[in-house]
Amino acid sequence: MQPTASMEATSRAASRVFDTVVREIVRETPDTVTLVLDAGDHPRDYKAGQYVSIDVQQFRELKQQVAYFEHVKGRREPPRAYSLASTPDEPHLAITVKEEVFVPGQTAYPPLLSPYLVFGVRKGATIRVKGYTGYYVLPDDVEERTDHIVHVVAGSGVVPNYAIVKWALAHKPTLRHSFVYSNKRWDDVIFAKQLAELERAHPDRLKIYHCLTREEAAPADAPGATLGRVDCDLLSRVITDPNGCLVYACGPALSRWDKKAAKERGEEPKPRFLETVRAHLAEIGVPRGAIHTEAYG
User: Which CATH superfamily is domain 5-133 in?
Assistant: First the structure.
């Protein structure tokens, strides 16, 4: 999404550093947690879909690892961004973090912050964050533009879209949502229960489509799941009017490390989730300006 001048001004005004306290840790999947953060009196003046940044420098437990990485890289370790799973209506902030893993040949360095947030943080801990930032949000006049929001997400890319759909169901009554969610296995699905509850509560406004790429059969608690990847056929069934919807797609995209490794092999980089989804959407005729993306994972 291209930022407007008003959005840029809002983002600058709202981007502040403040302390939060971990009030609850919710285990979503074996490698994913939601950290419920008490921001005290700090205003909740953010939009569903935005994120906060966390500076790894603040954690004493990671001091030696940070020092080593900075020595090897020759630069300061930057903050990491985490989308808010919460909405401004909720009393606390919430970020959902999936543990990143080191894959030789695909990632340059072992992940630093996400494993700590998933397995090392305890209730009562203080986490300093900077927020709120991001343009992956619904426009203020969304109901004048469309009545159909299509979410196409993979893995932890579900987080900002989950916040968006929660907020829109409460505040944008004319919008209906199609939510296409890809994971390897059913055990990997973040917010499976919460999404199902939202769908039951709003059967005329929300339809969930689960895609499982490494299951041999649909699990008993996900009988309608598609076995396989998000493809043109599925998207064309979900998007009956390509000129009448807005699409919000979030998931893994090619990183500069992917491109560098492919170049060293003398190959073109293999498209990842976002590149593939963009190609499918173009094929079925969704205008480029109606597609909003955010890279994740």
Answer: Translation factors (2.40.30.10)
For the chain, the domains span 5-133, 142-295
Give pLDDT, residue 108. 80
Query: Is the pLDDT reported for residue 8 higher than 60?
Result: no
Structure tokens at 109: 């360095």
Distances (CA, A) of 42 to 16, 37, 134, 167, 190: 10, 11, 18, 20, 28
The answer to whether 255 touches 105, Cβ cutoff 8 Å, is: no
Report if pTM > 0.70. yes
Cβ(95)–Cβ(116) under 8 Å? Answer: no
Sheet of 93-98, strands arranged across: 80-83, 51-54, 126-133, 16-29, 32-38, 93-98
Q: Maximum CA pair distance of the chain?
A: 55
Q: Which CATH architecture has domain 142-295?
A: 3-Layer(aba) Sandwich (3.40)
